[in-house]
Amino acid sequence: MKPFILVVEDNVDLLFNLDLILKSNDYRTLLAKNGIDAIEKLEKANQQPDIIISDILMPKMNGYEFFQHISNDPRWSSIPFIFLTARAAQKEVRLGKLLGADDYITKPFEEKDLLAAISGRLNRIQRIEKINEKLLNLNHRNYEIKKEQTCLILVIWDDKVGPELRDYYPKTKDFHIPLENIGSQLFSAATTIYGHDAIDKAEGLLINIKNYNLYGYVFFDSFSVEHERSEQKQYMIAYLSPFLSYLHSLKINAIFKDFSKKIKKNDKWNIKRYWLMISQSLNEIDLIDQ
Q1: pLDDT value at position 35?
Q2: Are residues 159 and 244 in the same domain?
């Protein structure tokens, strides 16, 4: 089936041109003139869009407000989002990225740049879907997770035993998922898709782990070691929660980068501290949205 794209743009001529470009490149489209119109059409749509492309300056509900709305709705929070705007100022670019959008295209744009951005997002979706398929094949059992339960885990590759759960927090028995299993499965699934030597190219991925009824934000990297066969030791940091939005994942990514620096430099680190940092950061986002 052809990929399905929601385009939100208040300029009727540009909306028509975008529709023409996308359809001529084998995409199906759903068109809206502002954020309110887009939400109404999403509610009525028989299929969830694969990607959303949205202008920023629009009447009734602008692009930033629209993005925040869908980011906090579990039905739509995992849809890749591309901002399309005439504003080229660095402040606007930073704000779009701060909110968690996947890409930012400035008008006027080249058709090839728009199509490249869409293709990149679609390839990422396919890789995430493949990881989920691997997870489903590895474990068919469904788990029920309490709303407030979250967990931060660190998994490091060992040449002898494979993915090894090195640390986690909270240290509680109330988290009913076997963390060794999910850590190993996430690592193994990503390795299958990207290849062991290129696992750090996966960087950060927001995954809906359906058979665990969980969302996971996973971050891959590696550090140099002399005694390993590949001279690189790969590792994965993952935050598990009943729900995560793209805005959440951006905050987590910034914290994970700091955590990863500590690991790469072999500095002292405390996994509880990073779990608390993430919890506080996500709580601040949720309070703002209330």
Answers
A1: 92
A2: yes
